[in-house]
Amino acid sequence: MYDNMKQTRQLFSYINEWDLHYFGYSFSKEEEACTIIIGPYFDKTPNLYRLSRDYHLSSTQSEDLKLMCDKIYILTAEKASSYGSVLQQFTNIIEQEMTTIVIVSNESTRNDRRREDHFNVDEEAELVKLRYKTEKDFMNAVERGDKKKALQLINSKNMLFSFSERFPNQPLRRLKNVAIILNTLLRTSARNSDVPAIIIHRISEKFAYEIENANQVETLHQLEDRMIEQYCDLVISNSLSKYTTLTRRVIEYIHSFYNKQINKEELAAKLSTHPSHLSRKFKEETKFTLTAYQQMLRINQAKHLLKTENLSVEEIAWTIGYDDPSYFARVFKKETGRTPSEYRDGAVE
Question: Which of 28, 264, 279, 331 has its CA 20 to 30 A from that of 248?
């Protein structure tokens, strides 16, 4: 796009092969060429199923694509046109000379002094010690999957995340920063419990997006509790700490490529072991064969998609690794007792 923007004071529109839209505007300022590009945005909800299939994306890549697309705005034609109009007025805006007058409030200065004098050195040191102890206790609770204890610590008056003095007039920004810190602690705690990195990445990215797009204080308060609960559930259901290093690496591999055919010989070579030893050790520790464990992950993902996504059964079958929708439906019914359509109808109820 940039290479084709040679004409100045001209609005350019660009759409790439992923249906991502951009606006561009070129102009000159003091004999220097300048370019502004805004985007990307969508003009309609993208067909992620088609993109994943066309580009042969793995399950991990498809998840990353979904997370990325969730962060991109969908603009109506009218709003996109408005953005284009603003760009066309940009030259006139910057050519206007403006002088900024800074006003300093005496009352604000006095308030700053009061806040600085509020804590003496000893009190502040005790507060810091309490925060670090509470942080350690909180992370330990999450690492054990103890959501009750974790919620109790986060909601107590221990000032673990008390940073109001930094943003006295910006409650929303303060709470967003608190949520970002909380997401980091939760992510670290989950990793300390040997939850597969790919699973942590997915939930962390999802919450990071929700945090930045929250526009109400109450929404952020509710989000904090939900983050703690979901990370604790993640630890309980996915912790690998009880397994040997070999089995952990196999499980992490299957989680990343559950929708691809597993070649046992190639996987064993990657892990520097014999295929028979790999199979025997995995079955001994997990009570599953490699194929059965992969199928369990596929069916669990299918349940999630049937509950949360408006995808056809055929699309879901392909997304989780089944080329034959009929075979997928038979496997799903054998595992759950219901067809995919029956499960979806039941989930809606």
Answer: 331
